[in-house]
Amino acid sequence: MTIKVLIVDDSALVRKILSEIFGKDREIQVVGTAVDPYAARERIKQLNPDVITLDVEMPRMDGITFLENLMRLRPMPVVMVSSLTQRGAEVTLRALELGAVDFVAKPRIDIAGSLADYADELIEKVKAAARARVRAPAAAPPAAGLQQPGIGVEAGLGASAAACSVLRTTDRIVAVGASTGGTEAIRELLAALPADAAAMVISQHIPAAFSRPFAERMNRCSAMSVCEAQNGQYILPGHVYIAPGDRHLLVERDGARYRCFLSGAEPVNRHRPSVDVLFRSLARNVGPNATGVILTGMGDDGARGLKEMLEAGACTIAQDEASSVVWGMPGAAVRLGAAQQVLPLQQIAAELLRKHTTHQAMQLARTAT
């Protein structure tokens, strides 16, 4: 089946580049272009596209306002085209909250060889978007910066917290891997966990410019303390550590404690951070005291690492197909036999809490005897 694409961008050069990229793939047809959301609205009515690529910043109406209206009135797959800047990160993360399936960077033609890699990424994401499950949000989440009362904390560990960290440790660690649709799945998961939940390490496929704003955004909606992971940082209960973009996150043992280790090694499964890298480090160093969770995402990164965690005695969970935006990574894990449980996203937090409570009870029983 041919995927009909509408390109919405105020730059004639960007429209030309994207059209040429799509024109080289026989499964994709550019049915039209639009210079702003007002023109896009008419093109959607006329052309009924399967996927829209949407610029973030445009005249007359910005991409976010248009996306919010579109997802309310006519939900459909949207891939945002964003600049890799702090401003671009905040706006793009907001777009993902509002229902955009994924995002790509603005095309760059000043770096030799970069356009070929960019074309592969763009085509892959548009094809995944065409298969994605798109739903109108029941209620739009609050914009970034609106602090929920009583639960906000600083994203990083301050000097006093770092000093106290040597006195604290964690018995259980939850490792989470995600890609397409993952930023919102992670937000929903973290929002359902209490402040004293087991420590969590996360590998989300995300650019380097986006990981810190993403961690700060998750910190504002979670009772746990969320930060972008730092090399050598102790892993503590009630804390969440998100892999920096362009760095693998691994968990290493340091005596009775665990630390974050960041690596600039080659991408694995074309990704850095890679979910497989994170999961394999827990299989080696945490074993049965770990739980692995693989969430929505395209591709198969994390499936083999989750299998290694299972073989090391860890508990393993995969998000089910119905609640996934793209059932690529979790589906690959299920087919590999790596997932003990396949659960809707809405049930995963409760299952993690049940496992944590059971583990604590067992620890108390062993102490009593």
Brief rundown of the structure:
With 369 residues, this protein is an alpha/beta fold.
Structure commentary:
This protein is of the alpha/beta class. It folds into two domains: 3-131, Rossmann fold (3-Layer(aba) Sandwich), CATH 3.40.50; 159-368, Rossmann fold (3-Layer(aba) Sandwich). The chain contains twelve helices and 14 strands. The protein has a seven-stranded parallel β-sheet, sandwiched between helices. Helix 3 links the parallel strand 3 and strand 4. Helix 10 crosses helix 11. InterPro entries: CheB-like (IPR008248), CheB_C (IPR035909), CheY-like_superfamily (IPR011006), Sig_transdc_resp-reg_Me-estase (IPR000673), Sig_transdc_resp-reg_receiver (IPR001789).
Number of strands: 14
The assigned CATH architecture of the largest domain is 3-Layer(aba) Sandwich
Instruction: Characterize the largest beta sheet: strand count, sense, and whether it forms a barrel.
Output: 7 strands, parallel
Number of domains: 2
CATH topology of the largest domain: Rossmann fold
How helix-rich are the residues, as a percent range? 25-40%
Distance between the termini: 64 Å
Pfam families: CheB_methylest, Response_reg
InterPro entries: CheB-like, CheB_C, CheY-like_superfamily, Sig_transdc_resp-reg_Me-estase, Sig_transdc_resp-reg_receiver
GO cellular component, one term: cytoplasm
Organism: Steroidobacter denitrificans
